[in-house]
């Protein structure tokens, strides 16, 4: 069994590997945090489940959406404010790209059991975007297309490996149920901002 990575190594790996090529901003911030002893001390004092880069970066995103995000050099001196947001809030990851996998999977499952309609239940639904999986259009790297070609939400997805993507259209969706441990309070301006503008781990 390998030795557990230090917090600095976790942040550097996130920046140089996980965020590389997908989020230059998160890449830069994560690496900068990995090199700041002061920032790492503050993050280390947070509950274990709140120390992960995705959670801390989501908290930074929250500050940005509220107009309170500092410049990078200032961020490294006010990590306690970022951690306070991370501890107080749940990180919501609303990623419509998951529909590229969900659509053919749900359609194929329905085919196998002979279902002509389906109900969708999303546990940990965040903003509930994936409950609308049947309402997006998806184009795969092999030229195959699924979903609604007229949808304003159009996704592109690369296929890895040589296994074919099921071609069946999704049956009619007759129920959509979202379950979340931290539901949005529509009377709370901050919660509404999170839900509408999206505090996510991607940028």
Describe what is shown at a glance:
The chain has 8 helices and 5 strands, in the order H-H-H-H-H-H-H-E-E-E-E-E-H.
Give keywords:
203 residues; alpha/beta; 2 domains; three-stranded mixed beta sheet; two-stranded parallel sheet; 8 helices; disordered C terminus
Q: Which descriptor suits the 3D outline?
A: elongated
Helix content range of the residues, please? Answer: 40-55%
Total number of helical segments?
A: 8
Q: Main sheet: which strands, in order across?
A: 3-2-4
Assign the structural class, choosing from mainly alpha, mainly beta, alpha/beta, alpha+beta, or little secondary structure.
Answer: alpha/beta
Q: How many domains is the backbone divided into? A: 2
**What's the gyration radius in Å?**
20 Å
Q: Give the beta-strand count.
A: 5
The largest pleated sheet is described as: 3 strands, mixed
Strand content: 5-15%
**Low-confidence regions:** 197-203
Can you walk through the features of this model?
The chain has 203 residues and is of the alpha/beta class. Helices cover 41% and strands 13% of the residues. It folds into two domains: 7-88, no CATH class; 96-181, no CATH class. It has eight helices and five strands. Strands 3-2-4 form a three-stranded mixed sheet, covered by helices on one side. A two-stranded parallel ribbon has the order 1-5. A hairpin with a 4-residue loop joins strand 2 and strand 3. The longest helix is centred in the middle third of the chain and has 15 residues, at 99-113. The chain is elongated. Mean pLDDT is 82; it is low at 197-203.
